[in-house]
Design brief:
CATH class of the largest domain: Alpha Beta
Bound molecules: adenosine-5'-diphosphate, magnesium ion
Helix content: 25-40%
Largest sheet: 7 strands, mixed
Distance between the termini: 28 Å
Radius of gyration: 31 Å
Number of strands: 22
Strand content: 15-25%
Structural class: alpha/beta
CATH architecture of the largest domain: 3-Layer(aba) Sandwich
Number of domains: 4
CATH superfamily of the largest domain: P-loop containing nucleotide triphosphate hydrolases
Shape: flat
């Protein structure tokens, strides 16, 4: 028997169990042994019986003294079990375990049994009760070595397949496992612990210390397999021929010289990194990330100018119409002195005029533009590019990773630069964007106005309004943000549409405008344009303003029901202000009901404006599984490792995997054959996920 052996060949697993396991996605010995425990119970030392509420769940062992079923309200039933501590101290209080409508539990528990119970106790009347505890009946002494007197694994279970049954199956399987047949996955330099030992110990650890050691090994395995597939993708990409999209830089230098400010060190560094990539004769996949306001647009434009000067076209693609229009205006303004043609193309315009107006009418002669700006509609009409050399994809976290592939599918293989305003902790760029080259803008331009953030009770609204009026009267502008646009929404958040009138009255006679997702695109543009020109003073808006909008004169943001937004989202929103030389203010109004994590979130925003810190906290709150699950494309799922908490192991695994490919890009050497099979295994896993 080895790890590939199908469970159907193992006679100690009854066919009915085999079918259950198969439905649970476990069909081989390997799959069974990498179905890791979700937690462990220390059954060498049970907790004492609780005498009241406890903060953490307890794990106790006792003898069943009494059971009873009671009918409550019609057909509802309540099942009570009284448990006594085995080596009863005179003072120990019996523990009441209680289940509602759980027939199957009633059938399992009888007087005199030894029961292990796990759950959170609550004081109730004169005693202590645990409602719906996890429990296990420990019947005969032969099983004690598996289920008692050790660190006992609790596996994620499923209907009909309890942790106890799973534990038994894993135990029997490990008894039959031949250690010599278990090949190592990771190079010994990374960790020399034998794999079979690690697989045994993760299920039935000798101690907490061995558990740590074995977990380290298995997390490294997992990360290494992941980084191996990333490294393989990288090696494949580097081997592909690609055009050199970079020659002289006089256009770029003229652009820089014409700016009223000088670039930040981070901008210079990023441009140099991207330039080296453009100049390499292989397809470029570059990620530029940096906090809101760090000046990504200029870096992108610099890269585009390099491509243009080398004789190619460049395209900038955005997730929204508003953003496309804004970039278009910015780029046109910056490129006109360089005599470059910039064109705009968006879904709305295409729709409107029926035929495909390839170029902005203001561009003379109908010649092909040097730079195209547009929404993702650009992707579906590749015909416009005859010489596309560089595609820049802005705000890629909204845009999706798939778009990159889309261009390729159309037979256009430009170099690709993706930009995201969500700063990504380094450890995650290694995972999420492991196949991209990454440049980081970790420095804000100096002229950036400071942003003061204050979270206040909604009752403070009148004071906030007074503050707002003062600044608007002094010539500044403001964003007022609402969570929802429609009062019919179930949440009772105030709706922007409904509140618009109120704000008009509060801020009269200053001009306010309303902006939300359901307004027609052309109308949206007009509204934004009036705001940009300073004709309207306040924009009552939903999160449509979340990405990319750049109006330096707007220095106040007021967010109502701030607790309803995500942490990263609030940071993005806040990035709309603090873009000019004026000191900026972000007022986060919270409803009286806000509590717990929501308050924590607002406090963090008051404390820091460091996007990297906020991104990490956000990940921590949401859990990396969420990020990896949604954003990650084409990587096997992680069962054990946490890319945030285990980032050091990720780094080690990455180095080892990349070193391997550096030395042997095809993994052709005989001693590397096993890594080829690790790769193949990973691909199989991914395919099985897709189907
Ligand atoms: P983001 O990274 O959020 O996309 P933008 O590219 O929109 O940031 O830049 C925000 C603002 O900062 C723009 O008005 C831009 O002109 C300005 N800016 C960019 N780089 C610098 C710099 N080095 N010094 C001063 N202002 C800059
Ligand atoms: Mg931007």
């Amino acid at each position: 028997m080895n790890l590939d052996t199908p469970l159907t060949e193992l006679e100690w697993i009854p066919p009915q169990r085999q079918r259950q396991l198969d439905r649970f996605g476990i069909a081989t010995v390997g799959a069974l042994l990498t179905h890791f425990p979700k937690r462990y119970e220390d059954r060498t030392q049970f907790d004492r019986f609780p005498t009241g509420d406890t903060a953490e769940p307890v794990c106790v062992c006792g003898i069943v003294k009494k059971t009873g079923v009671r009918r409550i309200r019609g057909s509802q039933k309540m099942f009570d079990v009284v448990l006594e501590e085995e080596s009863a101290h005179a003072l120990s209080t019996p523990l009441l375990c209680r289940w509602f409508n759980a027939h199957w539990v009633e059938k399992m528990i009888v007087n005199g049994q030894r029961l292990v119970v796990y759950g959170k106790p609550k004081a109730s009347g004169s005693g202590v009760v645990i409602v719906h505890p996890e429990f296990e009946v420990v019947e005969n002494d032969a099983e004690v070595s598996i289920h008692l007197k050790r660190l006992v694994p609790i596996h994620r279970a499923t209907e009909g397949l309890s942790p106890r049954v799973l534990r038994h199956i894993v135990w029997d399987t490990l008894e039959n496992l031949c250690d010599d047949e278990v090949e190592p996955i990771i190079p010994a330099v990374l960790d020399a612990t034998p794999r079979a030992w690690a697989l045994r110990q993760i299920h039935f650890p000798d101690s907490r210390a061995t558990l740590e050691k074995t977990r380290r090994h298995l997390v490294l395995e997992e990360f290494f397999a992941m980084q191996l597939s990333i490294a393989a993708k990288r090696a494949e990409q580097s081997a592909q021929p690609g055009a050199v999209h970079c020659a002289a830089d006089s256009l770029m230098r003229r652009l820089h010289a014409a700016l009223p400010f000088s670039l930040t060190g981070a901008q210079f560094r990023s441009i140099a990194e991207i330039r080296a990539d453009l100049a390499a004769p292989r397809p470029m996949n570059h990620l530029l990330h940096g906090d809101v306001g760090s000046g990504k647009t200029l870096v992108a434009l610099s890269a585009m100018l390099l491509a243009v000067e080398a004789g190619y076209q460049a395209a900038l693609m955005t997730p929204t119409q508003i953003l496309a229009e804004q970039h278009y205006l910015t780029l046109r303004h910056l490129c006109e002195p360089l005599s470059l043609r910039v064109a705009l193309r968006t879904a709305a315009r295409t729709e409107q005029s029926g035929a495909l107006p390839l170029f902005d009418p203001s561009v003379e002669g109908g010649e092909e533009p040097h730079i195209l700006v547009g929404t993702h509609a650009l992707l579906y009409a590749g015909a416009g590019f005859s010489r596309l050399g560089l595609a820049v994809i802005d705000e890629q976290h909204k845009f999706g990773v798939m778009q990159r592939a889309r261009l390729r599918d159309q037979g256009i293989a430009p170099d690709v630069l993706v930009m995201t305003a969500t700063p990504i902790p380094r450890t995650l760029t290694m995972t999420l964007y492991g196949d991209l080259d990454v440049s980081t803008l970790d420095e804000l331009p100096e002229n950036r106005g400071r942003i003061v953030t204050a979270a206040r009770d909604a009752a403070k609204l009148p004071e906030a309004v007074k503050f707002l009026r003062e600044h608007l009267e002094a010539g500044r502008q403001a964003y007022i943000v609402y969570p929802l646009i429609d009062e019919s929404e179930k949440l009772e958040a105030k709706a922007a549409a409904g509140e618009f009138k109120k704000w008009q009255a509060l801020l009269a006679p200053m001009k306010c405008e309303l902006l939300h997702g359901r307004i027609a695109p052309e109308e949206k543009d007009a509204i934004m344009e009036r705001f940009r020109r300073g004709e309207s003073k306040a924009l009552i808006a939903t999160t449509v303003i979340e990405v990319g909008i750049d109006v330096p004169n707007a220095n106040i943001m007021l967010v109502e029901n701030a607790e309803r937004f995500g942490l990263a989202q609030l940071h993005q929103l806040r990035g709309r202000i603090g873009r000019g030389e004026h000191k900026s203010y972000c007022i986060l109004l919270r409803s009286a009901k806000a509590e717990g994590e929501a308050l924590e979130k607002l406090r963090l925003l008051e404390e820091t404006s460091d996007g990297f810190k906020i991104a990490e906290a956000d990940l921590r709150m949401r859990g990396p599984g969420d990020i990896l699950g949604t954003a990650q494309s084409g990587l096997p799922p992680l069962k054990l490792g946490d890319p945030l908490a285990d980032h050091e192991l990720m780094r080690l695994a990455r180095n080892a995997a990349f070193l391997l490919f550096d030395r042997d890009p095809q993994l052709a050497a005989p001693e590397n054959a096993r890594y080829r099979s690790v790769l193949a295994e990973g691909r199989k896993l991914m395919l099985s996920q897709v189907s």
